[in-house]
Amino acid sequence: AQSVAQPEDQVNVAEGNPLTVKCTYSVSGNPYLFWYVQYPNRGLQFLLKYITGDNLVKGSYGFEAEFNKSQTSFHLKKPSALVSDSALYFCAVRDGGNSASKIIFGSGTRLSIRP
Amino acid sequence: DAGVIQSPRHEVTEMGQEVTLRCKPISGHNSLFWYRQTMMRGLELLIYFNNNVPIDDSGMPEDRFSAKMPNASFSTLKIQPSEPRDSAVYFCASSWAGSNTEAFFGQGTRLTVV
User: What's the half-sphere exposure (Cβ side, CA atoms, 13 Å) at B65?
Assistant: First the structure.
């Protein structure tokens, strides 16, 4: 079975400060990890993914995420937050040992950036 | 490509009525997912298809829910009879073959059962 945990319901950061949104996962095979963002009344938009290779992956809008196998974590980061980054963020995992596995999402973290 | 297309965007129906939600995946994608989003339960996977075949429907809450994918370009999620607790936003998503690919989401259908 695969699962994702996002331990923080909400993260509050001042504009210009660095931000981190936490994610830990559990999967039986190789983890394929994803981050998505959801703006109000919209579908989820893909930000970035880790499949293999460099543990630090870069994605859209200046976001990056670091894969840590020993801690089974995939935290989302950004060096300098913008007010427009305020949204709901989801971490997701697929089982890389299955050629057509399902995508399981975490509960989401609401990111609020104050001016 | 227009992306994943869902219809209707909003649906209000009375308890006991049948509801059908529709999804057109991105052309060429062969995996399709149906999710339900609520405040209480977050984003739940209901069912997913690979090459039009249902692979895992363990997330379908009850026999009142059914999903079909008659061809590569169309899928439906049906609720019969609908109940107020089915009120949620239902998302369809599609992806290329292989687990190393991300899914693309539609705009969702907001269902309200009164």
Answer: 18
The answer to whether the CB of A43 falls within 8 A of the CB of B107 is yes
Between B4, B50, B99, which is nearest A94 by CB? B99
Tokens 């609520």 locate to B38
| Of A42, A99, A103, Cβ closest to residue B33 | A103
Instruction: Write a three-state SS string for B48-114.
Output: EEECCEEEECCCCCCCCEEEEEEECCEEEEEECCCCHHHCEEEEEEEECCCCCCCCEECCCEEEEEC
Q: What is the pLDDT along chain A (115 residues), one digit of tens a residue?
A: 789 999 999 999 999 999 999 999 999 888 999 999 999 888 999 999 999 989 999 999 999 999 999 999 999 999 999 999 999 999 999 987 777 788 999 999 999 999 9
